[in-house]
Amino acid sequence: MKQIKLGMLTPSSNTVLEPITCSMLQNVTGVAAHFSRFKVTEVSLSSSAANQFLLEPMLEAAYLLADAKVDVIAYNGTSGGWLGFENDRRLCEQITRETGIPATTSVLALNELFSINQVKRFGIVSPCEEVIVERIVNNYAKIGLECTGYACSGISDNYECAFVTEEAIREMARSVALPGVDAITMFGTNLMSAHLVEELEREHGILIVDTIAAVVWKCLLLTGISPQVVSGWGKLFEANGVKTS
Protein backbone atom coordinates (compact mmCIF):
# COMPACT_ATOMS: atom_id res chain seq x y z
CA MET A 1 0.00 0.00 0.00
CA LYS A 2 1.33 3.42 -0.96
CA GLN A 3 2.09 5.70 1.96
CA ILE A 4 0.57 9.16 1.70
CA LYS A 5 3.04 11.87 2.66
CA LEU A 6 1.77 15.23 3.98
CA GLY A 7 4.38 17.98 3.66
CA MET A 8 4.25 20.82 6.19
CA LEU A 9 6.00 24.18 5.89
CA THR A 10 6.95 24.95 9.48
CA PRO A 11 7.93 28.29 11.07
CA SER A 12 11.39 27.66 12.54
CA SER A 13 10.54 28.66 16.12
CA ASN A 14 7.36 26.54 16.23
CA THR A 15 7.57 23.61 18.64
CA VAL A 16 3.88 22.66 18.70
CA LEU A 17 2.66 21.85 15.19
CA GLU A 18 4.98 18.89 14.57
CA PRO A 19 4.09 16.82 17.67
CA ILE A 20 0.40 17.75 17.40
CA THR A 21 0.23 16.83 13.71
CA CYS A 22 1.94 13.50 14.36
CA SER A 23 -0.40 12.78 17.27
CA MET A 24 -3.43 13.43 15.07
CA LEU A 25 -2.12 10.99 12.48
CA GLN A 26 -0.69 8.30 14.77
CA ASN A 27 -3.65 5.95 14.33
CA VAL A 28 -4.12 6.67 10.61
CA THR A 29 -2.63 3.80 8.63
CA GLY A 30 -0.60 4.75 5.57
CA VAL A 31 -0.32 8.49 6.26
CA ALA A 32 2.75 10.33 7.55
CA ALA A 33 3.72 13.96 7.99
CA HIS A 34 7.03 15.47 6.87
CA PHE A 35 8.30 18.92 7.81
CA SER A 36 10.49 21.64 6.32
CA ARG A 37 11.38 24.78 8.27
CA PHE A 38 11.87 28.40 7.27
CA LYS A 39 13.00 31.28 9.48
CA VAL A 40 10.28 32.78 11.69
CA THR A 41 10.90 34.12 15.18
CA GLU A 42 8.76 37.26 15.51
CA VAL A 43 5.01 37.79 15.20
CA SER A 44 4.36 41.50 14.86
CA LEU A 45 3.46 44.18 12.33
CA SER A 46 7.06 45.31 11.87
CA SER A 47 8.58 45.20 8.41
CA SER A 48 11.24 42.74 9.58
CA ALA A 49 8.52 40.38 10.82
CA ALA A 50 6.60 40.68 7.55
CA ASN A 51 9.77 39.87 5.60
CA GLN A 52 9.90 36.46 7.27
CA PHE A 53 6.88 35.50 5.13
CA LEU A 54 8.20 36.53 1.73
CA LEU A 55 7.62 33.97 -1.01
CA GLU A 56 11.28 33.09 -1.61
CA PRO A 57 12.20 31.45 1.73
CA MET A 58 8.86 29.68 1.90
CA LEU A 59 9.33 28.34 -1.63
CA GLU A 60 12.83 27.13 -0.79
CA ALA A 61 11.35 25.11 2.09
CA ALA A 62 8.64 23.81 -0.25
CA TYR A 63 11.24 22.65 -2.79
CA LEU A 64 12.89 20.57 -0.06
CA LEU A 65 9.57 18.88 0.68
CA ALA A 66 9.10 18.24 -3.03
CA ASP A 67 12.39 16.31 -2.98
CA ALA A 68 10.64 13.84 -0.66
CA LYS A 69 7.84 13.46 -3.22
CA VAL A 70 5.15 14.48 -0.77
CA ASP A 71 1.55 14.32 -1.95
CA VAL A 72 0.56 17.77 -0.66
CA ILE A 73 2.39 20.80 0.70
CA ALA A 74 0.75 22.85 3.44
CA TYR A 75 1.92 26.06 5.04
CA ASN A 76 1.14 25.20 8.65
CA GLY A 77 1.07 28.79 9.84
CA THR A 78 -1.37 31.67 10.18
CA SER A 79 0.39 34.78 8.88
CA GLY A 80 -2.18 35.00 6.08
CA GLY A 81 -4.66 36.03 8.74
CA TRP A 82 -2.98 39.39 9.29
CA LEU A 83 -0.97 39.81 6.07
CA GLY A 84 -3.99 38.99 3.91
CA PHE A 85 -5.61 35.84 2.53
CA GLU A 86 -4.31 36.67 -0.94
CA ASN A 87 -0.75 36.09 0.35
CA ASP A 88 -1.67 32.50 1.11
CA ARG A 89 -3.41 32.02 -2.23
CA ARG A 90 -0.34 33.32 -4.10
CA LEU A 91 1.92 31.01 -2.11
CA CYS A 92 -0.20 27.97 -2.93
CA GLU A 93 -0.41 28.87 -6.61
CA GLN A 94 3.36 29.32 -6.80
CA ILE A 95 4.12 26.06 -4.97
CA THR A 96 1.86 24.09 -7.29
CA ARG A 97 3.20 25.85 -10.39
CA GLU A 98 6.82 25.14 -9.40
CA THR A 99 6.43 21.61 -8.01
CA GLY A 100 3.21 20.20 -9.47
CA ILE A 101 2.09 19.38 -5.92
CA PRO A 102 -1.26 20.64 -4.55
CA ALA A 103 -0.90 23.14 -1.74
CA THR A 104 -2.91 24.71 1.05
CA THR A 105 -2.47 26.71 4.26
CA SER A 106 -3.92 26.71 7.75
CA VAL A 107 -5.87 29.91 7.11
CA LEU A 108 -7.28 28.86 3.74
CA ALA A 109 -8.39 25.57 5.30
CA LEU A 110 -9.99 27.45 8.20
CA ASN A 111 -11.84 29.72 5.77
CA GLU A 112 -13.12 26.70 3.85
CA LEU A 113 -14.40 25.12 7.06
CA PHE A 114 -16.14 28.37 7.97
CA SER A 115 -17.81 28.36 4.56
CA ILE A 116 -18.87 24.69 4.77
CA ASN A 117 -20.41 25.26 8.20
CA GLN A 118 -21.98 28.62 7.22
CA VAL A 119 -20.10 30.42 9.98
CA LYS A 120 -20.93 34.13 9.99
CA ARG A 121 -20.09 35.10 13.58
CA PHE A 122 -17.05 33.69 15.34
CA GLY A 123 -14.62 34.19 18.20
CA ILE A 124 -10.83 34.16 18.11
CA VAL A 125 -8.40 32.76 20.67
CA SER A 126 -4.83 33.76 19.83
CA PRO A 127 -1.42 33.88 21.48
CA CYS A 128 -0.54 37.04 19.52
CA GLU A 129 -0.56 40.75 20.27
CA GLU A 130 -3.83 42.63 20.06
CA VAL A 131 -2.73 44.65 17.02
CA ILE A 132 -2.21 41.38 15.12
CA VAL A 133 -5.62 40.07 16.12
CA GLU A 134 -7.29 43.34 15.13
CA ARG A 135 -5.75 43.00 11.68
CA ILE A 136 -7.12 39.44 11.48
CA VAL A 137 -10.58 40.67 12.51
CA ASN A 138 -10.49 43.35 9.81
CA ASN A 139 -9.50 40.86 7.10
CA TYR A 140 -12.43 38.62 8.00
CA ALA A 141 -14.79 41.59 8.01
CA LYS A 142 -13.76 42.22 4.38
CA ILE A 143 -15.17 38.81 3.41
CA GLY A 144 -18.37 39.28 5.41
CA LEU A 145 -17.50 37.39 8.60
CA GLU A 146 -17.98 39.05 11.98
CA CYS A 147 -15.62 38.43 14.86
CA THR A 148 -17.87 38.86 17.89
CA GLY A 149 -15.00 38.75 20.34
CA TYR A 150 -11.36 37.86 20.71
CA ALA A 151 -8.94 36.96 23.46
CA CYS A 152 -5.19 37.08 23.06
CA SER A 153 -2.05 36.56 25.12
CA GLY A 154 -0.09 39.53 23.76
CA ILE A 155 3.00 37.56 22.69
CA SER A 156 5.29 38.67 19.85
CA ASP A 157 8.10 36.10 20.34
CA ASN A 158 6.79 33.13 18.36
CA TYR A 159 8.74 30.61 20.45
CA GLU A 160 6.97 31.81 23.60
CA CYS A 161 3.52 31.20 22.10
CA ALA A 162 3.97 27.49 22.84
CA PHE A 163 3.89 28.15 26.59
CA VAL A 164 0.38 29.58 26.89
CA THR A 165 -1.17 27.33 29.52
CA GLU A 166 -4.15 25.03 29.06
CA GLU A 167 -6.12 26.93 31.70
CA ALA A 168 -5.40 30.25 29.97
CA ILE A 169 -6.66 28.76 26.69
CA ARG A 170 -9.81 27.48 28.40
CA GLU A 171 -10.47 30.89 29.93
CA MET A 172 -9.92 32.68 26.63
CA ALA A 173 -12.35 30.29 24.92
CA ARG A 174 -14.98 30.92 27.60
CA SER A 175 -14.61 34.67 27.16
CA VAL A 176 -15.41 34.50 23.42
CA ALA A 177 -18.13 31.82 23.57
CA LEU A 178 -20.79 34.53 23.35
CA PRO A 179 -24.50 34.02 22.61
CA GLY A 180 -25.13 33.68 18.87
CA VAL A 181 -21.55 32.82 17.95
CA ASP A 182 -21.27 30.07 15.33
CA ALA A 183 -17.71 28.94 15.98
CA ILE A 184 -14.44 29.69 17.75
CA THR A 185 -11.03 29.41 16.14
CA MET A 186 -7.81 28.68 18.00
CA PHE A 187 -5.72 30.86 15.73
CA GLY A 188 -2.02 30.04 15.84
CA THR A 189 -0.04 26.91 15.02
CA ASN A 190 2.35 27.37 17.95
CA LEU A 191 -0.58 27.43 20.38
CA MET A 192 -0.97 24.14 22.26
CA SER A 193 -4.75 23.98 21.96
CA ALA A 194 -5.77 21.27 19.49
CA HIS A 195 -5.97 18.57 22.16
CA LEU A 196 -8.48 20.71 24.10
CA VAL A 197 -10.95 21.09 21.24
CA GLU A 198 -13.23 18.15 22.01
CA GLU A 199 -13.46 19.19 25.66
CA LEU A 200 -14.27 22.80 24.71
CA GLU A 201 -16.82 21.74 22.09
CA ARG A 202 -18.65 19.74 24.75
CA GLU A 203 -18.53 22.69 27.14
CA HIS A 204 -19.74 25.34 24.69
CA GLY A 205 -21.78 23.33 22.20
CA ILE A 206 -20.28 25.04 19.14
CA LEU A 207 -17.74 24.23 16.45
CA ILE A 208 -14.15 24.93 17.50
CA VAL A 209 -11.48 24.92 14.81
CA ASP A 210 -7.82 24.77 15.72
CA THR A 211 -5.61 25.95 12.85
CA ILE A 212 -3.32 22.90 13.00
CA ALA A 213 -6.35 20.60 12.83
CA ALA A 214 -7.75 22.63 9.93
CA VAL A 215 -4.69 22.10 7.76
CA VAL A 216 -4.54 18.37 8.55
CA TRP A 217 -8.24 18.15 7.56
CA LYS A 218 -7.56 19.85 4.22
CA CYS A 219 -4.41 17.84 3.49
CA LEU A 220 -6.34 14.60 3.92
CA LEU A 221 -9.03 15.81 1.53
CA LEU A 222 -6.44 16.85 -1.05
CA THR A 223 -4.90 13.38 -0.96
CA GLY A 224 -8.25 11.63 -1.34
CA ILE A 225 -8.56 10.46 2.26
CA SER A 226 -11.68 11.03 4.33
CA PRO A 227 -10.89 13.24 7.34
CA GLN A 228 -13.08 10.87 9.35
CA VAL A 229 -10.03 8.63 9.74
CA VAL A 230 -8.97 11.09 12.47
CA SER A 231 -10.90 10.76 15.72
CA GLY A 232 -10.66 12.54 19.04
CA TRP A 233 -9.66 15.92 17.65
CA GLY A 234 -12.96 17.72 17.16
CA LYS A 235 -16.09 17.85 15.06
CA LEU A 236 -14.33 19.21 11.97
CA PHE A 237 -13.19 15.65 11.23
CA GLU A 238 -16.79 14.42 11.11
CA ALA A 239 -18.78 14.26 7.87
CA ASN A 240 -16.04 15.89 5.75
CA GLY A 241 -15.90 19.03 7.83
CA VAL A 242 -19.59 19.57 8.53
CA LYS A 243 -20.27 19.89 12.25
CA THR A 244 -22.66 17.23 13.43
CA SER A 245 -24.81 17.51 16.53
Question: What's the end-to-end separation, in Å?
Answer: 35 Å
Summed over residues and divided by their number, the pLDDT gives a mean of 95
Estimate the strand proportion.
15-25%
Q: Uncertain spans, ≥5 residues at pLDDT below 50?
A: none
Strand/helix succession: EHEHHEHHEHEHEHEHEH
Q: What Rg is obtained from the alpha carbons, in whole angstroms? A: 16 Å
Helical stretch tally: 10
Class computed from helices, strands and strand pairing: alpha/beta
Task: Provide structural commentary.
The chain has 245 residues and is an alpha/beta fold. It is built from 10 helices and 8 strands. The protein has a 4-stranded parallel β-sheet with strand order 2-1-3-4, sandwiched between helices. β5 (121-128), α7 and β6 (146-155) form a beta-alpha-beta unit. Helices cover 41% and strands 20% of the residues. The model has no long low-confidence stretch (mean pLDDT 95).
Describe the secondary-structure layout:
Layout: E1 4-11, H1 17-25, E2 31-38, H2 47-51, H3 55-67, E3 72-75, H4 80-83, H5 85-99, E4 103-105, H6 106-116, E5 121-128, H7 130-142, E6 146-155, H8 166-176, E7 183-186, H9 197-204, E8 207-210, H10 211-222
